[in-house]
Write a sequence for this structure.
């Protein structure tokens, strides 16, 4: 039970690996390139250093946590003899279906296959495997080491046993698991994304500027971040993918992505990860300041 695999070392994958490793699990972190693995490990190290600076953990805890992470580019070797695989690769249906088809062939028959998808149907992902009862959504929130919620999504065929195991495991990580059913956007993004999209629409319509929209929501609604800053933090490409899944799934105009969001993603303005979104993050300190708001 102590060895798990995490697929993807991007915004979410490195955080998920960090949390499992800090809680004593052996983590096999899998990526498509050494460069992505190095970047993911550098982020884990930086986040552990910030925890040391805040006296939340010791230098020894940092070494132990990093020692619990092993990196792989070969998927087969990375998932071998693991009890659980948490997939946190790019939010793209074809990529996820491809990964789950491979996982079903490569993993032991008892291995639980979880996905951190923000919106893609767990039932559809499970349908490409021969073990739909062992496929489940394990939706961590960003930044993973800080945020308490894990939205646990049951696919149509997910078993009670697997759901209970993943609920218990999430509690062991110090998180609060919350069980929901498998419909587009689940609960978190079904409510969050229309708000972010409306904030972008408000900017697009010239009702107010970026700072003004975020100030209204921060000071008026006591949100820790304004919706435009939050969109930058999540990744504008991720926001667009989620809205498209909800738009396709419900065929309801209210989920149609704002044209400004579509244009920004096409222009490569993805938020913090690309250095520019609604705000400018070209100096690394600015990006760190955004993350600091959560810690
Ligand atoms: N960004 C958020 O705030 C957030 C929050 C909750 C859930 N999610 C979900 O988490 C998942 C990952 O999102 P992210 O924001 O970390 O994306 P990201 O773009 O930061 O990272 C994705 C990583 O996956 C890697 N990858 C792609 N294909 C792969 C493969 N076949 N094998 C191994 N690695 C592969 C990429 O190289 C990249 O490093 C998505 O499903 C997303 O919807 C994101």
């Amino acid at each position: 039970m102590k060895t798990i695999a995490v697929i993807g070392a991007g915004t979410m994958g490195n955080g998920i690996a960090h949390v499992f490793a800090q809680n004593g699990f052996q983590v096999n972190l899998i990526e498509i390139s050494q460069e992505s693995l190095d970047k993911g490990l550098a982020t884990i190290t930086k986040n552990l250093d910030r925890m040391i600076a805040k006296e939340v953990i010791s230098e020894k805890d940092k070494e132990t946590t990093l020692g619990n992470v092993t990196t792989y580019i070969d998927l087969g070797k990375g998932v071998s003899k693991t009890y659980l695989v948490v997939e946190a690769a790019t939010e793209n249906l074809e990529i996820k279906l491809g990964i789950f088809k491979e996982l079903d062939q490569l993993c032991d028959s008892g291995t639980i296959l979880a996905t951190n998808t923000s919106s893609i149907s767990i039932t559809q992902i499970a349908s490409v495997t021969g073990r739909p009862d062992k496929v489940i959504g394990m939706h961590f929130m960003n930044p993973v080491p800080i945020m308490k919620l894990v939205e646990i999504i049951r696919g149509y065929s997910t078993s009670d046993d697997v759901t209970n195991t993943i609920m218990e495991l999430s509690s062991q990580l110090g998180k609060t698991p919350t069980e929901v059913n498998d419909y587009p956007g689940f609960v978190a993004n079904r409510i969050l994304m229309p708000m972010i999209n409306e904030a972008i629409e408000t900017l697009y319509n010239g009702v107010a500027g970026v700072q003004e929209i975020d100030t209204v929501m921060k000071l008026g609604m006591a949100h820790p971040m304004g919706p435009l800053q939050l969109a930058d933090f999540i990744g504008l490409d991720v926001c667009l993918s989620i809205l498209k899944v909800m738009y396709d799934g419900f065929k309801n105009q209210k989920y149609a992505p704002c044209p400004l969001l579509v244009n920004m993603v096409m222009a490569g303005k993805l938020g913090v990860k690309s250095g520019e979104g609604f705000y400018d993050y070209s100096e690394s300190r600015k990006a760190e300041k955004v993350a600091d708001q959560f810690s």
